Amino acid sequence: MNILKAILFGIVEGVTEWLPVSSTGHMILLNQFVKLDVSKEFFNMFLVVIQFGAILAVIIMFWGLIWPLGRSKESGKICWKRPVLRLWLRTIVSCLPAAVVGLLLDDWIDEHLYNWVVVSLALIIVGIAFILVENKNSNREPSVARLGEFSNKDAFIIGLFQTVAAVFPGTSRSGSTILGGIAIGVSRKTAAQFTFVLAIPVMAGASLFKMVKYVHNGGTFTMNETAILLTGSIVAFVVSIFIIKFLMGYIRKHNFKPFAWYRIVLGIVVIAYFAIAGK
């Protein structure tokens, strides 16, 4: 039964990690109805480390965009690809705010903000923000249409938006970075691409940090827990492949308003459910 539940968590992670609807928020809410038979400490670690599968999907699909080595057309020798190095520099700049906040406030965030109240409010507030930004930019020509046009300033501003997601579950890491990108004039396609690249160090670092912290605090991996973690990660990887392809095709002709309305409706439903349940 735990393996079946892990498959469900993997599906939810793979779908919601890349769509601007909050993967962590959905995972926390899912746990209210489908509980894994594991310790609270393992589950908190599982919520983050399961992202390894989703990260691997990005690395495979965007390998040509992120791998910094290539062959020179003139000499045929292996050389550094400068546009890719610049992209990674922008990525590092964008990661810094969330990395600092995550290291300083990780325990406090887990203790005080991982609950349905914060998740539901974040779903609604970011949903409204998406609608406002999309309305404002409906007839606006993007000032940044390609990844190579990013400045350090653009990257840092998007990093600040990402920091909000690092603090408040339900905000959505992909949603906040895409929203921040669109707000400062980045095209939807480019904002989504940068979000995918940005996810690699952010999610890998967060996953590694959570796993090391779990082991350092005395956590162990039973065969059952190892099977749960591997199953969730593998399922998240497979589902992420399809969702990333879907999203990149979707944004060529559509905006993010449908996801915004979904967030708002889901947030209201969550509030209503827990109000009726008296929790």
Report what the structure shows:
The protein is mainly alpha-helical and 279 residues long. The chain has one domain (2-69, 77-277). 75% of the residues lie in helices and 2% in strands. It contains twelve helices and two strands. It has helices at 2-16, 23-33, 40-49, 51-61, 63-66, 82-112, 116-136, 152-167, 173-183, 188-216, 223-250, 257-277, and strands spanning 69-71, 78-80. It has a two-stranded antiparallel sheet with strand order 1-2. A hairpin with a 6-residue loop joins β1 and β2 (78-80). α1 runs antiparallel to α2 (23-33), α3 (40-49) packs antiparallel against α10 and α4 packs across α10 (188-216). The radius of gyration is 19 Å and the shape is globular.
Topology, please?
Blueprint: H1 2-16, H2 23-33, H3 40-49, H4 51-61, H5 63-66, E1 69-71, E2 78-80, H6 82-112, H7 116-136, H8 152-167, H9 173-183, H10 188-216, H11 223-250, H12 257-277
Question: Any descriptors?
Answer:
globular, two-stranded antiparallel ribbon, mainly alpha, single chain, 279 residues
Stretches where pLDDT is under 50 for at least 5 consecutive residues are none
Strand order of the largest sheet: 1-2
**Could you describe the largest sheet, including whether it forms a barrel?**
2 strands, antiparallel
Order of helices and strands: HHHHHEEHHHHHHH
Apparent shape: globular
Rg result: 19 Å
Average pLDDT across residues?
A: 88
